[in-house]
């Protein structure tokens, strides 16, 4: 019986947590990743006869029918990562997001596999009405602000997926992710929590972009991947769009202060203008808060990790990593 799971972006931050979850469930797994932002070390402990990594872009790898043999579910998590990458390379991001999603949907249809498309809260653009609901109208800024190009590509991905559901009966789920955090997330692509944790542990000032009054809602990747699996495994949910995240708001300055307090840091907070990081014409939504009624009704979604628990774990991991690195450096000098 076909029961294999295929995950694009499987060596990435969220993809590796999803792979870990399915490994615990005893499922056979195929991970597809070109390792441009994913890392082999994220999934190295999982690799064996029942969990294989195929290096390459999904559009190339999925041309081989043998890759799809036995696959019943596909989770498409391969996409451009982080606001900074989107601002720096918008054209490459646009091509990657749309072309790769189209290729994944074709492969899912060929394999008759259900497919989950990981979308983003960026789809909402700068909608002023909170909470953000799946059926509300979308509002974007001007094309001169490249930030909005990412949300537009994700919206097009959703249109593609929903059309495959309507035309071909493909089992499709779309999840709009809101500020997912957790172990293995990197700060180099502009992700706020790993940046804050790294600075706090080193007693360096935490850089808050803008005035820090913008609000976000953060959720742990381990809660997110369980919800993804629950949704795709429930045919009654197919053909729907779901917000997926937390509805606990916090300002970015409050987040920085929480990290400082949990880490016992003396570095403080330093405000940095957006223009100094992202250049001119950058726009940032002042608030992002999802409505979660739909996913709660669908699968009884209830996160297991609080923000404080996740931050505490991340701080402890960073402290351990720093101690190991410092110890290695000291040993080398002796």
TrEMBL record:
One Pfam family in the UniProt entry: Epimerase
UniProt-listed InterPro entries: Epimerase_deHydtase, NAD(P)-bd_dom_sf, UXS-like
Domain NAD-dependent epimerase/dehydratase: 5-245
Keywords, ordered alphabetically: Decarboxylase, Lyase, NAD
Keyword Methyltransferase: no
Cofactor: NAD(+)
Name of the protein this chain belongs to: NAD-dependent epimerase/dehydratase family protein
